[in-house]
Amino acid sequence: MNIVVLVKQVPDTETERKLNPADSTVDRAASDGVINELDEYAIEEALLLKEKHGGEVTILTLGPEQATDSIRKALSMGADKAVHVSDEALAGSDALQTAYAIAQALGTLEYDLVILGSESTDARTGVVGAALAEYLGLPQLTLAGKVDIDGSAVKIQRQTDDGYQVVEATLPAVVSVVEKINEPRYPSFKLIMAAKKKPVTKLGIAEANIDPAKVGLANATTAVVDFAAAPPRAAGTVVKDEGSGGIQIADFLAAKKFV
Amino acid sequence: MAEVLVLVDHVDGQVKKVTLELLTAARRVGEPSAVVVGEATDELVAKLGEYGAEKVYTAPAELDDYVVAPKAELLAKLATDKSAAAVLVSATAENKEIAGRTAVKLGSGVLTDVVDITPELVAEHSIFGGAVITHAKVTKGVPVVAVRPNAVPAEPASGAAAVEAVEIEISEAAKAARITDRVKQEKGARPELTEAAIVVSGGRGVGSEDFSVVENLADALGAAVGASRAAVDAGWYPHAFQVGQTGKTVSPNLYIALGISGAIQHRAGMQTSKTIVAVNKDPEAPILEISDFAVIGDLHKVAPQLTEEINKRK
């Protein structure tokens, strides 16, 4: 079974993240790039499925040159190879354009399953998996807390607010995963060394069959009108508990009419 | 005035509060039309009318037998047939997916996790864990916008609520992911986390899987219970209740953080809460910087006292 895992490089949450004043896109130079956290769970799930069913795990990344770091990390976890679509024309693409571009790039690969994290830590739209399924015309098995494959049948537990739904479909399919699905492995030294030799295919948008008129900031379906640093929250009251802390909170809540 | 479609969230014949908020927001933009998948009882329709719905479109419950795609077909069809000015949904994980697919079908754009919206459909977002506020708009086609619960206060206004059954044939492709079972996990009588007006969350400071100190306070306030990643990772509380970057985003009127230090990952999930109260042992905890009222102390003493005090004052 061939699995493609979508990996995105995002600004590290631990560093100060910024937008470019000129075009309101994420300033990727301002903070360190790291692999999107939920993508590690997607990679882990792909590796677990490969261990069970055989096949190959391919990483697919759209992003600038620096995204190579995240691709190497993904390979060092145990993925077999990678495809990196990197092209100036993709810069500033919104979530739906990204889904379109991924769908096109997937057209150049052979796969039974596409796995991705349910959202990225930078944009956090949570729409890419669904939009991708729409573009590909494939079953949408998103927000999975558990994935089971039996032949060409795939079954997931789709997480909902009050539990989960069992969802069934036939491969090929698009699966997005949530954090509870597994515990991503740490790359071993041996795998880190081996990852350096694994093939990474670089594609421009033409090679990935991506129409330049459908991607990039100039063709985006959404536009940022303006942005600003959030006004700092007014300094609140901080008291030390000297036996009446709970009552003091109750007084505060009463003044705010919460009780 | 152009119609603004609002996808109705409802459970057991009851409209969820967030739908009333969306109808209120829709009135800023145009004439609200509610879209109900499943049985539209008289009571449900009446409620939608009380918040300004001029029309109520109904579609068969069968659409809910498959993941997301049929509802996107429904919304895209209605948006086209009725020349809608916009489509609004609540910013739940599922509805954001519906919004995304609907926008792809319409060849338009989607905005998610919106915390405010103007009559011109300029949407406000709070990004990077609350550090930056952006305003954005959809520049192509019919805007599809997912609005967070508690973003716009619900205000009643009378609407005709004229019911119209939608005739729709769902494509075979949209039936590719079948829902074959639904498993409800223990939740009790508490409100839903992402929609609740008040959320009480517990973190590392709770110290064990005995979350009763958090739950008792939540129940006294009629609040939902949340948990930090540290508490979830420790196995003290289920993942479904995790608030933060890789969990749920909440935006309640009141957020009470018990024993949560307030790492950026957590703040990303709650920083747009209108009032924040914290109890923490550590006077250096980052949560104190964003709290409107904070007590430095042992949550196992402060929270029970607060619970008792609230119950006394009821």
Automatic annotation (TrEMBL), chain A:
Residue ranges crossing the lipid bilayer per the database entry: none
GO MF annotation terms: electron transfer activity
Coiled coil spans: none
Annotated Electron transfer flavoprotein alpha/beta-subunit N-terminal domain residues: 23-212
Gene Ontology cellular-component terms listed: cytosol
Cofactors named for this entry: AMP; FAD
Entries under InterPro entries matching the protein: ET-Flavoprotein_bsu_CS, ETF_a/b_N, ETF_b, ETF_beta_N, Rossmann-like_a/b/a_fold
Pfam family, one: ETF
Keywords for the protein's UniProt record, in alphabetical order: Electron transport, Transport
SUBUNIT field: Heterodimer of an alpha and a beta subunit.
Family per similarity comment: Belongs to the ETF beta-subunit/FixA family.
Summary of the function given for this chain in its UniProt record: The electron transfer flavoprotein serves as a specific electron acceptor for other dehydrogenases. It transfers the electrons to the main respiratory chain via ETF-ubiquinone oxidoreductase (ETF dehydrogenase).
Protein name per UniProt: Electron transfer flavoprotein subunit beta
Species of the source: Thermobifida cellulosilytica TB100
Automatic annotation (TrEMBL), chain B:
Electron transfer flavoprotein alpha/beta-subunit N-terminal domain ranges (all copies): 4-183
Transmembrane segments: none
Organism: Thermobifida cellulosilytica TB100
GO molecular function term, any single one: flavin adenine dinucleotide binding
One of the GO BP terms on file: fatty acid beta-oxidation using acyl-CoA dehydrogenase
Known function: The electron transfer flavoprotein serves as a specific electron acceptor for other dehydrogenases. It transfers the electrons to the main respiratory chain via ETF-ubiquinone oxidoreductase (ETF dehydrogenase).
Quaternary structure and interacting proteins, as annotated: Heterodimer of an alpha and a beta subunit.
Protein keywords: Electron transport, FAD, Flavoprotein, Transport
UniProt-recorded name of the protein: Electron transfer flavoprotein subunit alpha
